[in-house]
């Protein structure tokens, strides 16, 4: 019997299982009307109501 190998998952860009995203070329399925979350140093970020991704995470992927 062969040895079991671990399953590796990775994401390319700001996508999630619930929201496909190909920014900046589009389309982006994130819906930015989710609850605001508190991050470190009193920084807040909006979230996607579909998948919960913080807007700052998305911006860091697609920003210049």
Protein described:
- The protein has 64 residues and is largely without helices or strands.
- It has one helix and two strands.
- The protein has one helix spanning 55-62; strands spanning 37-38, 44-45.
- A two-stranded antiparallel ribbon has the order 1-2.
- Strand 1 and strand 2 form a beta hairpin.
- It is extended.
- The protein starts with 36 loop residues before the first strand and ends with a helix.
What descriptive keywords fit this protein?
6% strand, single chain, little secondary structure, 64 residues, two-stranded antiparallel ribbon
Strand order of the largest sheet: 1-2
Which percent band covers the strand fraction? 5-15%
Rg, rounded, reads 15 Å
Contiguous helical run count: 1
Tally of extended strands? 2
The helix-and-strand class reads little secondary structure
Mean model confidence by pLDDT: 80
Question: Which helices and strands occur, and which strands form pairs?
Answer:
Elements: E1 37-38, E2 44-45, H1 55-62
Antiparallel strand pairs: 1-2
């Amino acid at each position: 019997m062969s040895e079991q190998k671990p399953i590796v998952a990775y994401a390319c860009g700001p996508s999630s299982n619930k929201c496909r995203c190909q920014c900046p070329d589009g389309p982006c399925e994130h819906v930015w009307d989710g609850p605001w979350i508190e991050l470190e140093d009193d920084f807040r970020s909006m979230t996607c109501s579909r998948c919960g991704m913080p807007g700052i995470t998305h911006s860091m992927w697609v920003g210049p």
